[in-house]
Amino acid sequence: MLHQTQVSRVAAAWPGFIARFPDPGVMAAAGPGAVIAAWGRLGYPRRARRLWEAAVVITARGWPDDLTDLPGVGRYTAGAVSAQADDADVVAVDVNIRRVVERIAGRRLTPREAEASALELGGPLGGRDRLLALMDLGSLVCRPRDPRCDECPLAPQCTAHGPVNGERRTRQARFEGSFRQRRGRVLAQLRAGPAAAGALDAD
DNA sequence: CTCCTGAAGG
DNA sequence: CCTTCAGGAG
């Protein structure tokens, strides 16, 4: 749920969702439609589909040693789970941490470079504490716009003190008249219950 | 590299 | 109007 979705929105949706699907077995048995419906308006409904697929795999074969074997789970998610659940000494580089390490370096970094830098910059912290400290630093201090460099503990070693050349510029395509808008209507209809396809055109 | 979602805040 | 959001897959 946290993939490209703000924490506050996930936090609001989480209780109801986890109550509906308390474990992988329940989710696997519920079927993809039920999971997508319960996903609500969190966006990227593909994630709901993959979550159900992962539940099916876990129910059938148990948890894999490598979490990235599960659909929808990449290096980031596997690392975040390991660091927080098991306090493993790894860093999962999210958009916030990426921004921090690139500004300190003064240039864009490869994913591996960013990871190595984050591990080092975590200082005396490790595991869960280091991951969360770096995330919060990026989110609250090393912000995309108007960074608070005067409050940053890493300012002395920072190169850019602001956006680096080539820093992320996500421009969102127009929503009105888009396929995305149309799909949103379809999903809203399906969440509401079975409906004739023709009813969708009425909107 | 591109695509994928919806909502909140600037 | 614009940007941003604890990414993953093709």
Describe this structure in words.
By secondary structure, the chain is an all-alpha fold. Among the domains are: 7-72, Hypothetical protein, domain 2 (Endonuclease III, domain 1), CATH 1.10.340; 83-157, Helix-hairpin-Helix base-excision DNA repair enzymes (C-terminal) (Endonuclease Iii, domain 2). Helix content is 56%, strand content 0%. It contains 10 helices and no strands. The chain is globular and about 60 Å long. 19% of the residues are buried. The structure holds a DNA duplex (10 and 10 nucleotides).
Large-scale geometry: globular
**Number of helical segments?**
10
Largest sheet: none
Q: Roughly what fraction of the amino acids lie in strands?
A: under 5%
CATH homologous superfamily of the domain at 83-157?
Helix-hairpin-Helix base-excision DNA repair enzymes (C-terminal)
The average pLDDT score comes to 87
Uncertain segments:
196-203
